[in-house]
Design a protein that fits this description.
This protein is of the alpha/beta class and 320 residues long. It has eleven helices and eight strands.
Length: 320
């Protein structure tokens, strides 16, 4: 279904529309990815555990609004990122903070006051911004394969950068499905999980499904501009006070483990879970390795909320 969120048309899928009894889990996907990148297995497991699962396409991705009307010519992203890091003027078409307000707008459109917010990669950065912008609406935060954005942290491996910024071929520009799937598969091989077999057929099928649903190369570049210009978020992460789980693989070629470690270090009380052999893209056979971590974290918080308050003996008083 389509909703209006923060003045933007956003495509949303809701596992239990209108069910106010279930705690809401809001899933935010990463750069250029669509809501279908969240495994149906994970969504089903969360729903079966009693949660209402809401996932959506970010602006400029999937079936949500294309922001081409902003009329911004796509610049050299590396040049743009360098200016941002040096503190020089860099004006993206929109910011991660704007995208965080999109996420909050989705909750508004669905009549949801509070949610557990789970974000992957760029989605983790947006989730952090959601927790900073509206702390009273975030029950908990899960930041997966993401980063604090601190300028001293390592970036992607050089071959990953080259693969993602390689100019489109003529066939890709013309929308040739085979060419687009091949390009994506080439990039995915670089950011996968080296400790596990590469599931070529399964990944090719899911990639083809995504290409048939939507292709937004210019939208992905605008999202990337929002990411590289978000240079001050790390300075505010100490303000986050909700329960936080940080999940990261130790073989991530896109955002190295140091990025997850720094995120956990900067957020008071955050718990870091490192998954051995996992990269930036996890094989479907191992998807629920980290899905189980998310589920256990959310269930523990929900069980704690349902526990009755301890009785206070007559004549005594509570102190804080």
């Amino acid at each position: 279904m389509r909703v209006q969120a923060n003045g933007v048309s956003i495509e949303v899928e809701d596992s239990a529309p209108g069910d106010t009894r279930r705690p809401v889990v809001l899933l935010i996907m990463g750069l250029g990815m669509q809501l279908i990148a969240w495994s149906d297995e994970l969504v089903g497991a969360l729903h079966a555990a009693g949660f209402r699962v809401v996932r959506f396409d970010n602006r400029d991705a999937g079936l949500s609004q294309d922001m081409a009307e902003l009329g911004v010519r796509t610049p050299n992203v590396l040049w743009f990122g360098a200016r941002s890091k040096l503190g020089l003027p860099a004006h993206p078409p929109y910011t991660l903070e704007d995208m965080a307000h999109d996420a909050l707008g989705v909750l508004d459109a669905l009549g949801v006051e509070q949610a557990h917010v789970v974000g992957a990669s760029m989605g983790g950065m947006i989730a952090q911004r959601v927790a900073l912008a509206a702390p009273h609406r975030v029950i908990s935060l899960v930041s997966m394969i993401s980063t604090s954005g601190a300028p001293t942290l390592p970036g992607p491996e050089p071959e990953v950068v080259r693969a993602f910024l390689r100019p489109a071929t003529r066939a890709e520009r013309q929308g040739d499905e085979q060419a687009l799937v091949a390009r994506a598969m080439g990039a995915f091989t670089l950011i996968g999980s080296p400790a596990y077999p590469f599931e070529h057929e399964a990944l090719q099928a899911s990639t083809r499904r995504a290409v048939q649903r939507s292709v937004r190369p210019q939208g992905t570049l605008r999202q990337l501009m929002a990411v590289v210009s978000d240079t001050t978020r790390f300075e505010r992460l100490h303000e986050i006070r909700c329960p936080v789980l940080v999940l990261h693989g130790d073989a991530d070629a896109m955002l190295p483990l140091a990025c997850g470690e720094d995120t956990a270090r900067r957020i008071p009380g955050a718990r870091l879970v490192v998954l051995p052999g996992m990269g930036h893209m996890w094989p479907q056979s191992q998807y629920m390795q980290w899905g189980a971590q998310v589920l256990a974290f959310l269930q523990a918080l929900t069980d704690r909320e349902r526990m009755p308050e301890p009785a206070v003996p007559a004549g005594s008083a509570e102190t804080s």
